[in-house]
Amino acid sequence: MHVLVLGGTGLISTAITRQLHDAGHDVTVCNRGESEADIPESVSHVRADRFGDDFPRRVSGVDADAVIDMLCFSDHDANLAVDAFAGEVEQYVMTSSVDVYRRPVDASPVAESAPRRPPTSDYGANKVAAEDAVRAAHDRGAFAATILRPWTTYGPHGNGNLCHTFGVDTTYLARLRDGAPVVVHGDGTGLWGPCHRRDVARAFVGAVGNRTAYGETYNITAEAVPTWERYYRVLADAVDAPDPEFVHVPTDVLRDAAPDRTDFLADHGRYSTTFDTTAARRDLGFDQTIPLERGVREVVEYLRARDRIDRGDDGWIDGLIAEWRDGTAGVRSGE
What we know:
With 335 residues, this protein is an alpha/beta fold. It folds into two domains: 2-153 and 195-220, NAD(P)-binding Rossmann-like Domain (Rossmann fold, 3-Layer(aba) Sandwich); 163-193 and 224-273 and 291-326, UDP-galactose 4-epimerase, domain 1 (Alpha-Beta Complex). Helices cover 37% and strands 15% of the residues. It has helices at residues 11-22, 55-58, 75-85, 122-139, 171-177, 197-207, 228-238, 251-257, 263-269, 278-283, 292-305, 315-327, 329-332; strands at residues 2-6, 26-31, 44-47, 66-69, 91-95, 144-150, 153-154, 163-164, 167-168, 182-185, 195-196, 217-220, 246-249. The strands form four sheets. A seven-stranded parallel sheet has the order 3-2-1-4-5-6-12, with helices on both faces. Strands 7-11 form a two-stranded parallel ribbon. A two-stranded antiparallel sheet has the order 8-9. Strand 8 and strand 9 (167-168) form a beta hairpin. It is globular. The chain starts with a strand and ends with a helix.
């Protein structure tokens, strides 16, 4: 098939582009041409602003059989895609997110039929609206739609996307490497499930042209889900760090103490959730084949080769730890 990938050079989409090519598909990527991602030379390229009103016109000359949209974040984006591809392609694959689910959840693992309202975050609310627009287009016969919902995905790209209590950068990798203490929200037993981008990409490739997937929605998430504390130990091992020093601070305290630094924690990190991937394994051939330990080491090697493991401006973390220790000294000493 001829597959048009909207994006095509990002964390997940670079892996999708490569795997589509390796599977024998003709591939065109559509983006603004600002990335230097390593994709096969045979991949065609169309330059367009995915979010611009002229997007449908810019892609009108691409005779694709299927579209994988990595850049659909709202109903506006979805409607642009419908304008561009209704009646023009056989299948449209939308990248959504597990953020569409209401959390905290009633039970885990969370199936695709779980309640979506209210969604976890503003990002999730916009994804819900986008999903609804895509489903409506599918129902009226504009194209066959497939919706995929990844969770947290990491890999050798950019900063690696290895999340931590305060966000997504290399600060914790650097602090662990240097033997500096790291803050862990709560008691560290909450769950966090990173999945390597190549495993996630394989599900997208498995959906293309797969009639079983037409009209369906799938969770594409880690199946092996460690605790946050275990996850941080994996990061520490990957940077050859000493035994990590954890400072456990209640999530609500962190939110109050650093409201401008804890958006990730509020929207994502505080929830301990797992997701049901039965349908994706059955229909798309999805499988988590890359263990976290191996995947993280791959990311660390990638970052080290580019000198990208940086603590940044992390002095505020040291200040927060000192304040917490001072304020709880009596409790911790049993006084």
